[in-house]
Amino acid sequence: MASSKKAKAPLRDGKMFRGVGVALVTPMTRTGYVDFKGLSKLVEHVIAQGVDYLVALGTTAETPTLTSDEKKEVLLSVIRQASGRVPVVCGLGGNNTQEVLDCIESYPLEGVAALLSVVPYYNKPSQEGIYQHFKKIADATRLPIILYNVPGRTVANMLPQTVLRIAKDCPNVVAIKEASGNLVQCMDIVAGKPKGFTVLSGDDNLVLPQIAVGMEGVISVAANCYTEAFCHMVHAALGGDFDTARAVHYKLLPGIDLLFAEGNPCGVKFVLSEMGLIKNSLRLPLVPASEKLSGQIKSFLQQ
To answer: Which of 69, 199, 269, 298 has the fewest other C-beta atoms within 10 Å?
Structure first.
C-alpha cells in the first residue's frame, strides 16, 4: 500500500512512543471467534484510562493463532476505534524475512504509526542474520519501526551492538522494545543509542528501574487491565517523581506477577473478564487461568 512504500528516510524520532503503549489482547467469543465488540470496548477503556498509544497484533494478541484475514480485520478495528486519538502500532514480524516483506505490502497500514517487529524466532539466526533481516524490513517501508527483542520467546537474543548497528544504519528504526530482562543489556543500549532513538521496556515488573537508568517507557501487558494505576506509575517516573512511582510499583507488583504466572495472556484475560470488558476465552494451545490462579487474582483484585 502507498503508506508502506519506501520514500526518503525521515529524521529519526521515537518520542511519540515515550510513555505507555498497551499490547492489546484479542477478545474471543465463547465459540472462538474474534469478539470485535469486546475489542472496541477494550480500546475505549485503555484510552480513557490514559495509555499513550495502542499496539495491535503483538504477542499478547494471540497473533500466532489468528488467520491472515483476522489479523487485518483486528488491525482495522483498532484503527477505526482509536479514531486518531492515540497512535496505533502494528505488530508485524516473523522468522521468514520475505513473508514479512510481503505482509508490509498487503496489510492495511494506512493509519498505522509504526511497525513493531520481533527478532526472528525458532530458526536461531546469528547476529549478522538478525541485522540483515531488519535491514531488509527497514528498506521496504517508510514507516517507523520498533525493534522487539524477547529472547525468552525467540531464543535468539539481539545483542546491544546489533541493536545499535541497526539503529545507526536504518534511520526509520526509531525504538526498541527490550524484553531480555537483562538490565546491563538495557543500559548498554541506552548508553550507545543515537539521537532520537527510544528504548522501551517489555517487562512490566522492571519498568521502574529501567526508567531510572534512562529508558523512556514500556509496551505493556498490564496496561490492559491495571491501566490507570500503571500509567500513573510510568508517567510519574518519567516526570522524576520516583517516590510516587515506587509506591504504585509495589502496590501493583504482585498483580503483575500473577498476570504471567501461567503464561500470557491467560492472566490478563481473566482480569479483563472479571472487569466485564471481555469474555475469558483463549485459543488453543493457550487455555484459561487455572482455578488456583483465578482465586489468587480475585484476592489481589479485592485488595
So the answer is: 69
Which residue is it, cell 466485564?
276
Task: Give yes or no: 71 in active site.
Answer: no
- Cα distances from 20 to residues 147, 160, 196, 237, in angstroms, run 16, 23, 17, 12
CB 200 within 8 A of CB 15: no
**pLDDT tens, residue by residue, 152-166:** 999 999 999 999 999
Residue tagged active-site, from 177, 193, 226, 269: 177
State the DSSP string of 195-210.
TT-EEEES-GGGHHHH
CATH number at residue 70: 3.20.20.70
User: Of residues 107, 148, 193, 269, which has the active-site annotation?
Assistant: 148
State how many domains the chain has.
1
131 in catalytic set: no
The reply to whether 254 falls in a domain is no
- Tens digit of pLDDT for each residue in 248-280? 999 999 999 999 999 999 999 999 999 999 999
* Mean pLDDT for the chain overall: 95
Give the dihedral sign, CA 76/64/120/188: positive
- Cα–Cα separations (whole angstroms), residue 45 to 156, 227, 255: 35, 8, 19
